[in-house]
Amino acid sequence: KFTVGIKTGYCLQNMILYARINGLGFDSSYRNKNENRAPVTFLVTVDQYKRMLPGPVFVSGDVKRDTLSGFLQEVKQLVEEMATRIVEDPSIIDSAHHANEVAMLTEATIIVQGSDGWQPLFFMIDKCLPEVGAILLVWPKMTIRLCQFHVIQAILRWQTDSGTSEVKPKLSRPAKYLILWAFRQLQRARNEEAWKREVELFRQRLRKIYYFEKNWFCGEWRDLWADIGLPPGHNRDNISTNNFTERAFKLFDEIFLENRANKSAYRLVLIIANEWFEYFRHWQPDHKKRPGAAYHQMILDGHRLWNSGYAIQDAGHDDQGQRVFKVLAEM
């Protein structure tokens, strides 16, 4: 029955500044967070450099539709109250956002003057029906995007909504590629007429259609992964995965839990309240991330130096039995 929501003024201002422009990620993690395996639910966004920033956090053993909608409704109210306060007194803008004070005031004004209050651009989720229901209870017309990575993963595993697998055919690697290609073509349907045409083509391409009819073409999920569910002018080629939320959990597990199983719910709350938000408040990069190709080349250069024998040399073991490497040249 342990249930708690955790927020700071800083994380609410993240929601004001970026959610309308860059959308939100919404996901829960069960593994190694507390003794009761109560999931931790993150609400996150990304900044202008596509770096993840935290929003309010929810810890509860009950993550059903009504409980999650209660959390989201409370967050919506808190964000709108914060926006009103900023419009009345911009000096309350957190120091971490001083470089974006003008944009913050603009976004807060849009929220205050809008008839519907705070309206994020979209919610990015995994395939979780309670999350869908919770979001639509608070924002009935909200655009919900289903993470494309999880769509592909579920198809390759022939996975159902319950997480179990159907009796799947043995598919070669080329056959898997063709399934994903056919599914991608189907995804491009933007209206009912195009949907009917693409579904028929999909049926011709695949003999086994029951799995897709039951798990992907149904009313609960179709508009969340196909372009038909997006507003005019939007497609899934920009932000199409829930990776920024997954990255938040990975960062939390590695840095704040030190890759250990946390056994205390109270310790978990203290870490989130006192350390999680503060980490991002004090670490605000002011530059774009390097392109993926640059990181890839850096890794290749590192492997080349490591294996060359001219930069790093194995120096055996120290007194504690740890391996020691000697750097022979500066990069």
TrEMBL record:
Lineage top rank: taxon: Eukaryota
Protein name stated in the entry: MULE transposase domain-containing protein
Organism: Dendrothele bispora (strain CBS 962.96)
